[in-house]
Structure formats: structure tokens, C-alpha cells
Design a protein that fits this description.
β12 (316-324), α11 and β13 (352-357) form a beta-alpha-beta unit. A twelve-stranded mixed β-sheet has the order 3-4-5-6-7-14-8-13-12-11-10-9, with helices on both faces. A two-stranded antiparallel sheet has the order 1-2. With 424 residues, it is α+β, with helices and mostly antiparallel strands. The longest helix has 19 residues, at 382-400. The chain has 14 helices and 14 strands. The radius of gyration is 22 Å and the shape is globular. α4 (90-100) packs across α10 and α7 (199-209) packs antiparallel against α11 (333-345). Helix content is 35%, strand content 23%. Pfam families: Acetyltransf_6. This is BioF2-like acetyltransferase domain-containing protein. Residues 24-34 have a biased composition (Basic and acidic residues). Residues 1-45 are annotated as: Disordered.
Length: 424
């Protein structure tokens, strides 16, 4: 089970960490008294912080964080909608740590004389060599320092404390304009469907604005006539169906010559941990659901035609891994699943579906809210910035070359694990 900050902590929580000495001589402390501080002291308003100079940073393995620190993490998230995405939940980092065992967390605390340090900011990450990368690697679609307003985030202090030369981040939500300018960050679109309490009305609007969505109803009805009655299972708890969903997704990666995100064992383990199998029953109201995996299945009679595995937290669904049975491709089962899931969202307490970053055409057809996220490297190393920029430029060039699909197919057949380092 994932740790629940509202319940009694597991036995391995609450351990104090010794101070971490940094190579440049800086020392950042999380005193014993910090981990034993009562909840009220750690939940004081952030308005009391006058400057970044009052903040201290300590770095911990995730499973060494105390229950009080995890409670502070979730309290900080609850104070600002900027941190509402499921990837910012401590339970997401917990699942990644259970699968990989290498999640570190930079804990930023407010220090005042004569008072215990209060954790007010959190940055979960992996240290790969001397590079800091998001917890969950490229499966993580939202990154930032959790809990701190942008003007209090000192990236140079974080680089020192975390013993890295750079943070390579690919989806920084709500970045500071100052960061974007200073670190020459780029931007990419991110897409979300907001239902405003009426997902049926939202679906009607999509049908009016997009011909593909409008025609899907006809295809879905045909699927029902020819295969079997259509039924949506919003919260499927079957481990066997989850395994089938992952198998279909992996086959889809192979057909489309895309890196198989489930090739590393840890990604499959993380999905299992988040889902939780049959340990909990299916939920009829997801409006107050704690973070977890949500497997939604579209049935035609007794046949599964499409499935989606994502993350749900308090009515926010992150659309992560949609897939379908190729033998039903003529019915557009992926779109059928999406439209039926939208139709049922308000009934099940789902307020929005977040498609994440990436400007794929299907996201533009299925969503109405567009934002920008930042991507790039946060570093003072000119050499790392140069190599990071060159790698991105090469990748963008490869996407624009003529006959890119044939080239991609040939390259993937020769190097089936090309790009696997970004999941390591």
C-alpha cells in the first residue's frame, strides 16, 4: 500500500537522517527535532518567510521522510492549485521509490532562531551521475519545486544541496519567467479537458467543434450492434485486465516504432503499485479519491475493445496510457473509450482529464484548455547546456526529415532499445 498521510505511518517512516555534507563545503541540516516537530509547527503559513536566506535544504531518500514531513508535503499542495496534479503527490513519488528504490527528495525548510525547522518545499528527483532528473523519469508529466512560490526557489542552492550540475526537466508547470530567461528554457503546449461540472455538455461541445468526435457516436453504435452491448467500466480492479492493457500498449509501441516505455521492469512495477489490484474495491465516486491508478475499460458484450490506465486524485484524471485491441480498429475504439469516459465523468466525480504535454493532434481534438510548460536544463554549466541543446536540436531535426516513419522503423529494428537511457 502507498503511504497515506492521513493514517498511521508505516514502520519505516519517521527515521531521522544524518546531515549531508556537500562537496563544495556547504552543509544542510535536517535536525532530529525537525522530524519530531508537531504538525502545527510544520503547517504554518508560508507568508512568514521573508527571503530565501531563511530557507535551508536537506536531501533524503524517500523512505527516510517522516510522517510529519509527508503531511507537510500534502498540506503545501492543498494550499495552491499549482500543485494539484497527481505527479506532485507524495504517493506518486512513493510508488516510484517502491519500484526503483532511488527517489531522493530535497526538503526545503524555513529556519528561524529558537524554532524547529518547518518543511515548506519539496523536490523529488533521481540523481543519474551528476544530473538531477524528475522522479519517475519521462513517465512524469509535471515537475517543479512543490510548495514554494517561484520567487523563493533558489535553483543554485538546490544544485549544490542535491550534488548535481544540472536538473534536466521536460515539463515544468508554472515556471517563473525569471527562470525561463535565466536558464534559456523552451516551452511546449499541454492540454486539459475541464468539465465545469457538466461533462455531457463538454462532450456536446466537442462534437460540435470536431468532426472526428461527432462521427464517433455512429461508430460506437455500430460496434454495439456487431460485437455486443457497450459498457464502460470506469474503475476496473482486475490485475489480469491491467496486464492485458500493458501488453496491448507494448504491442502498439512496437507497431508504431516508439520506445517501449514498459521495457524497464520498474515502470511495470510502478503501474502495479499505483493500481493496487483487488486490495481496494471499485470506487463509484472519484471526487475525493486519494492518488492511485485508474484502469478504465470499454466492453462490447464480453469483449474488451479498449482500455486506459491513468492516475486519479480528487477528481483529476491524468490520461496516461490509452490502448485498444487492434482487431476492432475500424470502430476507432480509443476514441470510443475517451468519449464514453467523458460522458460518465461528472457522474463519477471526475472534474477534468489532463492529457499532459506534447502537441499531438488527438489532444487538440479532445481538449479545450491549453497551457504551456517549460522544458530544458537548469544549470550553470555551459558544457552541459551545450550538449543538452545539441541533443534536443538533433531530436527535432529527426522529426522533420522526409520519410521519417520509414527511417524510424529501420532505426528501431536495428536499435530496439534506443532512447532507453531516458528511463534508466
Amino acid at each position: 500500500m502507498l503511504p497515506d498521510v492521513s493514517s498511521e505511518p508505516p514502520p519505516d517512516l519517521g527515521k531521522a537522517r544524518s546531515p549531508i555534507d556537500q562537496p563544495d563545503g556547504d552543509r544542510f541540516f535536517m535536525r532530529e527535532s525537525d522530524n519530531n516537530a508537531d504538525a502545527s509547527s510544520s503547517l504554518d503559513p508560508i507568508d512568514e518567510i521573508n527571503s530565501a536566506e531563511e530557507l535551508v535544504i536537506s536531501v533524503h531518500e524517500f523512505d527516510q521522510l517522516s510522517a510529519e514531513t509527508l503531511e507537510s508535503w500534502e498540506h503545501r499542495r492543498s494550499q495552491d492549485s499549482r500543485w494539484s496534479q497527481p505527479f506532485f503527490a507524495s504517493r506518486f513519488s512513493s510508488a516510484v521509490h517502491r519500484a526503483r528504490g532511488d527517489v531522493l527528495v530535497a526538503v526545503i525548510a524555513h529556519r528561524l532562531p529558537g524554532k524547529p525547522d518547518r518543511p515548506v518545499g519539496f523536490l523529488p528527483f533521481h540523481r543519474v551521475g551528476r544530473i538531477g532528473v524528475p522522479a519517475g523519469r519521462f513517465l512524469n508529466d509535471a515537475q517543479n519545486v512543490i510548495g514554494l512560490p517561484p520567487h523563493l526557489v533558489d535553483w543554485e542552492a538546490l544544485l549544490r544541496a542535491c550534488d548535481v550540475v544540472a536538473f534536466d526537466l521536460h515539463a515544468i508547470v508554472h515556471p517563473s519567467d525569471q527562470w525561463v530567461d535565466k536558464y534559456h528554457l523552451n516551452s511546449i503546449g499541454a492540454y486539459r479537458a475541464d468539465f465545469a461540472g457538466d461533462s455531457e455538455q463538454y462532450l456536446q461541445t466537442l462534437c460540435r467543434d470536431h468532426r472526428t468526435i461527432a462521427k464517433q457516436g455512429q461508430k460506437t453504435r455500430k460496434l454495439g450492434r456487431e460485437i455486443g452491448d457497450i459498457r464502460l467500466e470506469v474503475d476496473c480492479r482486475s490485475p489480469e485486465v491491467l496486464a492485458q492493457t500493458i501488453a496491448w500498449k507494448r504491442s502498439q509501441y512496437q507497431r508504431t516504432h516508439i520506445l517501449d516505455l514498459f521495457l524497464p521492469e520498474w515502470t511495470r512495477c510502478m503501474v502495479d503499485v499505483l493500481h493496487g489490484g483487488k486490495e481496494r474495491g471499485a470506487m463509484a465516486d472519484l471526487s475525493d479519491a486519494p492518488l492511485g491508478g485508474l484502469l478504465s475499460v470499454l466492453w462490447a458484450g464480453d469483449q474488451i475493445v479498449a482500455a486506459h490506465y491513468g492516475m486519479i486524485e480528487k477528481g483529476q484524471l491524468h490520461y496516461w496510457f490509452p490502448t485498444y485491441d487492434p482487431q476492432y480498429a475500424r470502430y476507432s475504439p480509443g476514441t470510443a473509450l475517451f468519449t464514453e469516459l467523458v460522458r460518465a465523468s461528472t457522474k463519477y466525480g471526475v472534474d477534468s482529464i489532463d492529457m499532459g504535454y506534447g502537441e499531438q493532434p488527438y489532444k487538440q481534438k479532445q481538449t479545450a484548455t491549453t497551457t504551456d510548460v517549460a522544458c530544458g536544463t537548469i544549470t550553470n554549466s555551459r558544457w552541459h547546456r551545450l550538449t543538452h541543446s545539441a541533443s534536443n536540436t538533433l531530436s527535432q531535426y529527426a522529426k522533420r526529415i522526409p520519410m521519417k516513419e520509414k527511417v524510424k522503423k529501420a532505426w528501431r529494428s536495428i536499435h530496439p532499445t534506443a532512447g532507453i537511457k531516458k528511463l534508466g
